[in-house]
Protein backbone atom coordinates (compact mmCIF):
# COMPACT_ATOMS: atom_id res chain seq x y z
CA UNK A 1 0.00 0.00 0.00
CA UNK A 2 1.05 3.48 -0.31
CA UNK A 3 3.59 4.96 1.89
CA UNK A 4 6.49 7.26 1.98
CA UNK A 5 7.33 4.17 3.80
CA UNK A 6 4.55 2.70 1.81
CA UNK A 7 2.82 -0.29 3.16
CA UNK A 8 2.09 -0.63 -0.31
CA UNK A 9 1.66 -3.50 -2.58
CA UNK A 10 -1.43 -3.74 -4.51
CA UNK A 11 -3.85 -6.12 -3.43
CA UNK A 12 -9.14 -5.04 -2.58
CA UNK A 13 -11.54 -7.08 -1.18
CA UNK A 14 -15.00 -6.37 -0.24
CA UNK A 15 -15.51 -9.37 1.91
CA UNK A 16 -13.15 -11.34 4.07
CA UNK A 17 -11.42 -14.11 2.20
CA UNK A 18 -12.63 -17.53 3.16
CA UNK A 19 -10.60 -20.70 3.38
CA UNK A 20 -10.18 -22.12 -0.13
CA UNK A 21 -12.82 -24.66 -1.04
CA UNK A 22 -11.73 -28.22 -0.55
CA UNK A 23 -12.24 -31.41 -2.39
CA UNK A 24 -14.73 -32.29 0.34
CA UNK A 25 -17.00 -29.70 -1.22
CA UNK A 26 -16.59 -31.35 -4.58
CA UNK A 27 -14.37 -28.54 -5.83
CA UNK A 28 -11.18 -28.85 -7.75
CA UNK A 29 -8.00 -27.40 -6.24
CA UNK A 30 -7.00 -23.82 -7.02
CA UNK A 31 -5.48 -23.57 -10.45
CA UNK A 32 -7.16 -26.75 -11.67
CA UNK A 33 -8.62 -26.67 -15.14
CA UNK A 34 -11.93 -28.33 -14.33
CA UNK A 35 -15.09 -26.62 -13.07
CA UNK A 36 -16.79 -27.62 -9.86
CA UNK A 37 -20.20 -29.24 -10.06
CA UNK A 38 -21.01 -28.08 -6.54
CA UNK A 39 -24.00 -25.78 -6.07
CA UNK A 40 -22.86 -22.75 -4.09
CA UNK A 41 -24.83 -21.06 -1.31
CA UNK A 42 -25.32 -17.99 -3.52
CA UNK A 43 -26.06 -19.91 -6.71
CA UNK A 44 -29.31 -18.16 -7.67
CA UNK A 45 -28.01 -14.68 -6.83
CA UNK A 46 -24.81 -15.23 -8.79
CA UNK A 47 -26.71 -16.65 -11.75
CA UNK A 48 -29.04 -13.65 -11.78
CA UNK A 49 -26.13 -11.20 -11.60
CA UNK A 50 -24.48 -12.89 -14.59
CA UNK A 51 -27.68 -12.98 -16.61
CA UNK A 52 -27.90 -16.75 -16.39
CA UNK A 53 -31.14 -18.70 -15.78
CA UNK A 54 -31.57 -18.31 -12.01
CA UNK A 55 -32.62 -21.89 -11.29
CA UNK A 56 -30.18 -22.55 -8.47
CA UNK A 57 -28.65 -25.48 -10.34
CA UNK A 58 -25.01 -25.59 -11.38
CA UNK A 59 -24.57 -26.24 -15.08
CA UNK A 60 -21.40 -26.32 -17.18
CA UNK A 61 -22.36 -22.95 -18.69
CA UNK A 62 -23.04 -21.50 -15.24
CA UNK A 63 -19.67 -22.67 -14.01
CA UNK A 64 -17.79 -21.20 -16.96
CA UNK A 65 -19.57 -17.85 -16.54
CA UNK A 66 -18.79 -17.78 -12.81
CA UNK A 67 -15.19 -18.81 -13.45
CA UNK A 68 -14.75 -16.05 -16.02
CA UNK A 69 -15.99 -13.50 -13.48
CA UNK A 70 -13.69 -14.90 -10.80
CA UNK A 71 -10.70 -14.83 -13.11
CA UNK A 72 -11.39 -11.26 -14.16
CA UNK A 73 -11.56 -10.03 -10.57
CA UNK A 74 -8.81 -12.12 -8.99
CA UNK A 75 -11.10 -14.33 -6.91
CA UNK A 76 -9.48 -17.64 -5.97
CA UNK A 77 -9.92 -20.49 -6.39
CA UNK A 78 -11.45 -19.69 -9.78
CA UNK A 79 -13.40 -22.91 -10.12
CA UNK A 80 -16.90 -21.55 -10.72
CA UNK A 81 -18.19 -21.96 -7.17
CA UNK A 82 -20.91 -19.45 -6.17
CA UNK A 83 -19.49 -18.77 -2.71
CA UNK A 84 -19.45 -15.80 -0.33
CA UNK A 85 -16.42 -14.02 -1.81
CA UNK A 86 -17.81 -14.14 -5.34
CA UNK A 87 -21.24 -12.96 -4.23
CA UNK A 88 -19.65 -10.31 -1.98
CA UNK A 89 -17.96 -8.73 -5.00
CA UNK A 90 -21.16 -8.86 -7.04
CA UNK A 91 -23.24 -7.47 -4.17
CA UNK A 92 -20.83 -4.57 -3.78
CA UNK A 93 -21.03 -3.84 -7.50
CA UNK A 94 -24.83 -3.74 -7.24
CA UNK A 95 -24.68 -1.35 -4.28
CA UNK A 96 -22.18 0.90 -6.04
CA UNK A 97 -24.38 1.05 -9.13
CA UNK A 98 -27.40 1.96 -7.00
CA UNK A 99 -25.64 5.09 -5.71
CA UNK A 100 -25.86 6.70 -9.12
CA UNK A 101 -24.71 10.31 -9.25
CA UNK A 102 -25.63 11.21 -5.68
CA UNK A 103 -22.92 9.58 -3.55
CA UNK A 104 -23.30 11.99 -0.63
CA UNK A 105 -27.05 11.59 -0.32
CA UNK A 106 -26.81 11.01 3.43
CA UNK A 107 -24.54 14.01 3.91
CA UNK A 108 -21.77 12.00 5.60
CA UNK A 109 -18.98 13.80 3.74
CA UNK A 110 -18.64 17.46 4.89
CA UNK A 111 -20.16 20.05 2.59
CA UNK A 112 -18.65 23.05 4.42
CA UNK A 113 -15.02 22.45 3.40
CA UNK A 114 -15.05 23.58 -0.18
CA UNK A 115 -13.28 21.12 -2.45
CA UNK A 116 -12.86 17.78 -0.70
CA UNK A 117 -12.17 14.18 -1.71
CA UNK A 118 -14.58 11.75 -0.04
CA UNK A 119 -13.99 8.04 0.52
CA UNK A 120 -16.87 5.76 1.53
CA UNK A 121 -15.21 2.58 2.80
CA UNK A 122 -18.50 0.71 3.18
CA UNK A 123 -19.33 1.08 -0.51
CA UNK A 124 -15.72 1.31 -1.73
CA UNK A 125 -16.49 4.53 -3.58
CA UNK A 126 -14.72 7.87 -3.80
CA UNK A 127 -15.63 11.22 -5.31
CA UNK A 128 -14.66 14.87 -5.26
CA UNK A 129 -17.18 17.51 -4.26
CA UNK A 130 -17.17 21.26 -3.74
CA UNK A 131 -19.74 22.09 -1.12
CA UNK A 132 -22.83 20.21 -2.23
CA UNK A 133 -21.74 20.15 -5.87
CA UNK A 134 -20.34 16.89 -7.24
CA UNK A 135 -17.14 17.63 -9.15
CA UNK A 136 -16.04 14.13 -10.15
CA UNK A 137 -17.14 10.56 -9.55
CA UNK A 138 -18.20 8.51 -7.81
CA UNK A 139 -15.60 5.94 -8.82
CA UNK A 140 -14.96 2.48 -7.35
CA UNK A 141 -11.82 2.24 -5.23
CA UNK A 142 -9.88 -0.48 -3.46
CA UNK A 143 -9.01 0.29 0.15
CA UNK A 144 -7.14 -1.42 2.98
CA UNK A 145 -7.63 -5.09 3.69
CA UNK A 146 -8.20 -6.57 7.14
CA UNK A 147 -5.25 -5.59 9.34
CA UNK A 148 -4.23 -2.75 7.00
CA UNK A 149 -7.42 -0.68 7.13
CA UNK A 150 -7.56 2.74 5.53
CA UNK A 151 -7.87 5.07 8.51
CA UNK A 152 -11.05 7.09 8.88
CA UNK A 153 -11.52 10.78 9.65
CA UNK A 154 -10.79 14.19 8.21
CA UNK A 155 -7.33 14.41 6.63
CA UNK A 156 -5.44 16.68 4.27
CA UNK A 157 -3.22 16.04 1.27
CA UNK A 158 0.31 16.75 2.47
CA UNK A 159 2.51 15.43 -0.35
CA UNK A 160 2.12 14.54 -4.01
CA UNK A 161 4.47 12.48 -6.17
CA UNK A 162 3.40 11.60 -9.69
CA UNK A 163 6.04 8.86 -10.11
CA UNK A 164 6.24 7.55 -6.56
CA UNK A 165 7.73 4.12 -5.85
CA UNK A 166 7.20 2.37 -2.52
CA UNK A 167 10.38 2.31 -0.47
CA UNK A 168 9.19 -0.80 1.35
CA UNK A 169 7.88 -2.97 -1.46
CA UNK A 170 9.61 -1.33 -4.42
CA UNK A 171 6.34 -1.17 -6.36
CA UNK A 172 5.20 1.79 -8.46
CA UNK A 173 2.47 4.04 -7.07
CA UNK A 174 1.66 6.46 -9.93
CA UNK A 175 -0.16 9.71 -9.18
CA UNK A 176 0.34 9.36 -5.42
CA UNK A 177 -1.38 11.93 -3.23
CA UNK A 178 -0.61 11.24 0.43
CA UNK A 179 -3.15 12.24 3.05
CA UNK A 180 -2.47 10.22 6.22
CA UNK A 181 0.79 8.71 7.44
CA UNK A 182 1.75 7.10 4.16
CA UNK A 183 -1.78 6.33 2.98
CA UNK A 184 -2.48 7.82 -0.42
CA UNK A 185 -4.65 7.90 -3.49
CA UNK A 186 -2.78 6.23 -6.36
CA UNK A 187 -3.35 4.09 -9.42
CA UNK A 188 -2.80 0.34 -9.56
CA UNK A 189 -2.72 -2.30 -12.25
CA UNK A 190 -5.36 -4.59 -10.74
CA UNK A 191 -9.13 -4.38 -10.78
CA UNK A 192 -10.98 -2.34 -8.19
CA UNK A 193 -12.88 -5.40 -6.94
CA UNK A 194 -9.80 -7.60 -6.60
CA UNK A 195 -9.77 -9.13 -3.09
CA UNK A 196 -8.65 -8.81 -0.40
CA UNK A 197 -7.59 -5.15 -0.74
CA UNK A 198 -4.68 -2.75 -0.45
CA UNK A 199 -2.26 -2.29 2.43
CA UNK A 200 -4.06 0.91 3.40
CA UNK A 201 -3.95 3.16 0.37
CA UNK A 202 -6.95 4.10 -1.73
CA UNK A 203 -6.28 2.30 -5.00
CA UNK A 204 -7.79 3.71 -8.18
CA UNK A 205 -7.78 3.09 -11.90
CA UNK A 206 -5.26 5.11 -13.87
CA UNK A 207 -8.06 7.22 -15.35
CA UNK A 208 -9.47 8.11 -11.93
CA UNK A 209 -6.05 8.68 -10.35
CA UNK A 210 -5.06 11.07 -13.16
CA UNK A 211 -8.31 12.98 -12.73
CA UNK A 212 -7.77 13.23 -8.96
CA UNK A 213 -4.25 14.48 -9.67
CA UNK A 214 -5.60 17.24 -11.89
CA UNK A 215 -8.42 18.27 -9.53
CA UNK A 216 -6.69 18.16 -6.14
CA UNK A 217 -3.69 19.96 -4.69
CA UNK A 218 -1.59 19.94 -1.54
CA UNK A 219 -3.68 21.18 1.38
CA UNK A 220 -7.02 19.91 0.04
CA UNK A 221 -9.19 17.99 2.48
CA UNK A 222 -9.90 14.27 2.39
CA UNK A 223 -12.66 12.62 4.39
CA UNK A 224 -12.70 8.85 4.93
CA UNK A 225 -15.66 7.15 6.62
CA UNK A 226 -17.48 3.87 6.97
CA UNK A 227 -16.03 0.39 7.20
CA UNK A 228 -14.93 -1.87 4.42
CA UNK A 229 -16.75 -5.22 4.36
CA UNK A 230 -14.55 -7.96 5.73
CA UNK A 231 -12.49 -5.71 8.03
UniProtKB/TrEMBL annotation:
<dbReference type="InterPro" id="IPR038063">
    <property type="entry name" value="Transpep_catalytic_dom"/>
</dbReference>
<dbReference type="InterPro" id="IPR005490">
    <property type="entry name" value="LD_TPept_cat_dom"/>
</dbReference>
<keyword id="KW-0961">Cell wall biogenesis/degradation</keyword>
<keyword id="KW-0808">Transferase</keyword>
<feature type="domain" description="L,D-TPase catalytic">
    <location>
        <begin position="114"/>
        <end position="225"/>
    </location>
</feature>
<feature type="active site" description="Nucleophile">
    <location>
        <position position="201"/>
    </location>
</feature>
<keyword id="KW-0732">Signal</keyword>
<comment type="pathway">
    <text>Cell wall biogenesis; peptidoglycan biosynthesis.</text>
</comment>
<feature type="signal peptide">
    <location>
        <begin position="1"/>
        <end position="32"/>
    </location>
</feature>
<protein>
    <submittedName>
        <fullName>L,D-transpeptidase family protein</fullName>
    </submittedName>
</protein>
<dbReference type="InterPro" id="IPR050979">
    <property type="entry name" value="LD-transpeptidase"/>
</dbReference>
<dbReference type="Pfam" id="PF03734">
    <property type="entry name" value="YkuD"/>
</dbReference>
<keyword id="KW-0573">Peptidoglycan synthesis</keyword>
<feature type="active site" description="Proton donor/acceptor">
    <location>
        <position position="186"/>
    </location>
</feature>
<keyword id="KW-0133">Cell shape</keyword>
